[in-house]
Amino acid sequence: MEASTFVLFGATGDLAKRKIYPALYNLYVDGKFSTPFSVIGLGRRELSNETFRAQVLQSLHSFSRRAALDSLQLQAFLQGFEYSVLDVGHPEDYTKLLKHVREREALLGLPENRMFYLSVGPEFFEPIAANIQASGLGDTLGWKRLIIEKPFGRDLKSARALNTSLTEAFKEEEIFRIDHYLGKPMVQNLEVLKYSNPVLRALWQNRYIANVQITASETVGVEERAGYYDKSGALRDMFQNHMLQLLMMTAMQLPKGSTPEEVRSKKKHVVKSLRPLIKEDVALNVVRGQYTPGEVEGRAVAGYTSEPGIDRSSQTETFIAARLWIDDPLWNEVPIYIRTGKRMKQKSTRIVIEFKEPFNDSHNKNKGDHTPNLLIIEISPDEAITLQLNTKDPQQHGELTSVHANYQSGSSSDVPEAYENLIFDALRGDATFFAHWDEVELSWQWVQPILEASEEGLLPLQAYRSGSHGPDGSAALLGGTEWWLDSED
Ligand code: BG6
């Protein structure tokens, strides 16, 4: 990987401390961050380099996945960090920044490769990108890249407007849109799982799959993010991005060794093939919910509208479930069920594939007694792959029983975190696990009728008790089958 300068906007923010510094450190320790390197942290407050480095150090102690930090390595790592004060709206601050970047490049002999990471609110994306362009920071002899995080707009129109202005300063191939779900190791494993296992590859189609269920349930509530969350809700916060990305990763089919362009084109095909929703029919296919008081993990918790900072009459959804169809020969007539919510019974992100009973087997006298074959892919907090099979139970007079063939991934402190994978990929210019504009635009396009139906009162909110599996309507959406594993936890 070529050496570069890492310019971090929002260097004193929460994301930088919790995720970005630990990720950079882990890459450094693993030899994946080329040395020498220059990280220039930016913020509005005046800070000396020493104070900034002390903050970075503190964040590593608090949030690194590694139990023991080597002090010599830490010292060397921190030498790469310097701080500059910057007000995003002040063009002269970018001129000073350019000078600082160049001084470090000259001192360390770095090529003019510049990574701009915008760990700031979305309202700052446009002015920062424009100022990078205007100041000359973006005129490099090497590469320049921009990393941004969701939200990419609030709806189709604003997302398009944002993209138009960003692409005035950066080309599409220079923009790396982080969706941290795409950095999760088990999500990155999905493609390999399919193409490296002929058994799964053969079964990955509507002839054998009865339905697909994608769940991201959380036990946390709105926490300290009332201001942001009450204006977003689960549809914008989780569904339009993480959940639809999980769907694309599950449904696409690729030959081994595909290029990032092929991956993107297959993902685009999936989201483009989603059957569009008609605003008037949204309520038949989508359920919105909001949590009421209840008990989560043995603790009594307040309802959403009693949370600090939330409007008492808020109609924002904290849960959303939907039934989707992919109009494609391989997926025709396979319902895809997706749900995500806060204050649910357990923290679990998982994909469950329910297989059909494809053969009308009149010799099978136990037919109808057994549970379907399931493939359960657990993404977080545990990483596991389980295949549920049926077998005879010798202790129960040969009756059928379900058994689980299971693979559990290693301890989580050994597994690179999402941000580590993603920053590493961005530094080497591999865009496979980033959201391309086409995917973002098509996702907004699919979601838009739901936004409109909600605003026009066509999709009423359903209450659900904190600590439950969501509103009753979510189970009803499945019409006949069930959300697998709900009854087990
Ligand atoms: C974020 C959302 O993108 O993802 C949060 O803004 C949510 O509301 C979080 O809690 C969930 O991420 P994870 O990795 O804990 O599943």
TrEMBL record:
SUPFAM superfamilies (alphabetical): Glyceraldehyde-3-phosphate dehydrogenase-like, C-terminal domain, NAD(P)-binding Rossmann-fold domains
Gene Ontology terms describing biological process: glucose metabolic process; pentose-phosphate shunt, oxidative branch
Binding residue positions for substrate: H180, K184, E218, D237, K342, K347
Ligand binding (NADP(+)): G10, A11, T12, G13, D14, L15, A16, K17, R44, D87, V88, K150
GO cellular component, one term: cytosol
Gene3D superfamilies in UniProt: Dihydrodipicolinate Reductase, domain 2 (3.30.360.10), NAD(P)-binding Rossmann-like Domain (3.40.50.720)
Active site: H242 (proton acceptor)
Alphabetized InterPro entries for the sequence: G6P_DH, G6P_DH_C, G6P_DH_NAD-bd, NAD(P)-bd_dom_sf
Molecular functions per Gene Ontology: glucose-6-phosphate dehydrogenase activity; NADP binding
The Glucose-6-phosphate dehydrogenase NAD-binding domain, residue ranges: 7-189
The UniProt record lists the keyword Oxidoreductase: yes
Taxonomic superkingdom: Bacteria
Enzyme Commission number(s) from the entry: 1.1.1.49
Catalyzed reactions per annotation: D-glucose 6-phosphate + NADP(+) = 6-phospho-D-glucono-1,5-lactone + NADPH + H(+)
Its biological purpose: Catalyzes the oxidation of glucose 6-phosphate to 6-phosphogluconolactone.
Matches recorded under PANTHER family: GLUCOSE-6-PHOSPHATE 1-DEHYDROGENASE, GLUCOSE-6-PHOSPHATE 1-DEHYDROGENASE G6PD
Entry protein name: Glucose-6-phosphate 1-dehydrogenase
Gene symbol of the encoding locus: zwf
